Amino acid sequence: MAAKDRFLLAAVMGWPIHQSRSPALHNFWFAQHGLQGSYVPLAISPEQLEAALRALPALNFAGCNLTIPLKQDAMKIVDEVDITAKKIGAMSCVVVRPDGSLAGSNNDWFGFTHNILEFVPDWRADAGPVAVMGAGGGARAVVYGLMERGAREIRLCNRTLARAQTLAKEFAGPITVVPWEQRHDAVEGAAMLVNATNQGMIGQAALDLRLDKLPVTALVNDIIYNPRETPLIVAARMRGNRTVTGLGMLLHQGIPAWQAWFGLSPKVTPELRALIEATL
Predict the structure, then answer these.
(1) Is-catalytic flag, 71?
(2) Domain boundaries along the sequence of the chain
(3) Greater confidence, 168 or 5?
(4) Which residue out of 71, 76, 87, 267 is catalytically annotated?
(5) What is the pLDDT averaged over residues 235-255?
(6) CATH class of 109-245
(7) Which of 96, 114, 121, 165 is deepest in the core (most CB within 10 A)?
C-alpha cells in the first residue's frame, strides 16, 4: 500500500514522448487517491536507456512505463523479465524492487482485454474466429490476450508475411496466417476483428479493409486511440457492428502498473475517459 507521507514517483520513457497521454492518466489517479506524487514524461533515446533505467532506484522512482522505441531494448537491461513480456517480446512496465533491482513486465495485453470487457462484459474470445490485422508489438499483445482468454481460432494478416509467420511460430497457438492480399476474405464469418496496425492513426492512411464479408454481429476493436474514432470504427458502427475504440487499452494497462508500484488498484471511470479524450 502506498504511503501517504512520502512523495511518490513514476514515469514514462520514450523517444519522442510529447505525444504520450500517460502523465494525464496517472496524475489523475494520484489526485483521486489523495496521494502526493507525480508521473513524469521522460524523453529517453535508446542510447540513454540503460543509464536512465539504472538511475530509477537512486531517484526513488517506483518504476516506469516504456513506449516506442524502447520496449525491446529494455528487456536486455533489467534484472528480470517476466514470462508474459518474454512471450510478447516487449516490455511495457518496469518495477523498482526493494533491493533496487529492476523487474520488467508487459501490461498491454491486460489493457486490451479489459478495455473490451468494460464495454462488452459478456465478451468471449472463444465465441468464434478472430481476425487480427498486424503483426507488430501491438499485435503480439493482442494475440497474447486473445489466447489468454481462450481464443480457438486467430486469423493473422500482416503486410509482411514473414513477420506474421514468425509471430505464429513463436506463440504456437491456434493461429492461421493469412496473406495480406486475402485480408478481405479473412473477416468472413469472424466473431471479432481487431486492427493492430498503425493504419488509421493520425497522420497515417486508413486501414484498407473491406467489411462486406464481416458479419454484422461481429465485434470490431481498433487499438489506436488517436484519433478517438478511426475510419475503421466509424465504418463498422455505420454498418451495425458493435465497436470498441483503443483508448481503454491505454487506460486499463495502467491498473496492474499501479498494483505493482503502489499496491493500489485504481479504476477507469467516465471522468477519467473524458479527461483523456479532451486531449485528443
Answers:
(1) yes
(2) 8-106+250-277, 109-245
(3) 168
(4) 71
(5) 97
(6) alpha beta
(7) 96
